[in-house]
Amino acid sequence: MTSQEKTKFKRVLLKLSGEALQGSQGHGIDPEVLETLAEEIRDVLKLKVEIGIVIGAGNIFRGLAASTKGMDRATGDYMGMLATVLNSLALQDALERKGVDTRVLSAITMQELCEPYIRRRAIRHFEKGRVVIFAGGTGNPYFTTDTAASLRAMEVHAEAILKATKVDGIYDKDPMKYKDAKKFTNLTYLTVLKKGLAVMDSTAISLCMDNKMAIHVFDMTKKGNIKKILQGKKIGTLVS
Predict the structure, then answer these.
(1) For the chain, which domains are there?
(2) Which in 2, 67, 100, 134 has the greatest CB count within 10 A?
(3) Cα 219 to chain center, whole Å?
(4) How many CB atoms are closer than 10 A to CB 88?
(5) Pairing state of beta strands 237-239 and 214-219?
(6) β-strands 11-16, 50-55: how paired?
(7) pLDDT tens column, 22-52
(8) Bridge partners, 104 (sequence order)
(9) If you ran DSSP here, which 8-state letter would residue 5 be given?
(10) What phi and psi, each to the nearest 5 degrees, are found at residue 50?
């Protein structure tokens, strides 16, 4: 490994939104997006970094959105958890086609499809150089996949959360709608909570604050950004 390839972290948790997988088609899973993502993760593994992944389900089903239309919130959340398993299996398939050894561990037991989430088993997979995808959220309703990502990051002793978005960091308002939106390069957890910045939900941010887990928010549509963060380059916004 050259001096240029030294990394800042040994183990990280990558949080992907479900919407990230839908690409330009507006729903479902775009095979091209999966392919590009799998290639990027494969390249990052060459840096000898251990990667855990949590994927949302917004491209398939949102429990919270369904609950506003009359569905029982717990039922909607369980459906969302099942949707994260679909996304996780799709990403596992894309990674394994690239030669990356991958395991899906689900908080909801479905032994025909994936392994049950057991903390020590997850850590053992990391030690063997496998990518670990955490599916099924926390296994409980009323908790988002952001909270699941924070929880898993603490449990497996990840050194940082990499939160992949469609924009290059955190802004004071939606940069897609407002041209005068101001970008932050560094933020504290308390500032994110006080300003109500929509980076992760408040439960996830509070959990990271209590356990001093740094969150790097970056644009996943630009190839090579994951690698740059791992090498310590200033990309996007750092919440710490």
Answers:
(1) 3-239 (3.40.1160.10)
(2) 134
(3) 12
(4) 25
(5) antiparallel
(6) parallel
(7) 888 878 899 999 999 999 999 999 999 999 9
(8) 133
(9) G
(10) -90, 130
